[in-house]
Amino acid sequence: MGIIVGIIVNIISGAIAGYIAGKLMESEGSLVRNIILGVVGGVIGSVLLRIIGIHASGFIGGTIVSIIGACILVWLARKLL
Question: pTM (2 decimals)?
Answer without folding.
Answer: 0.81
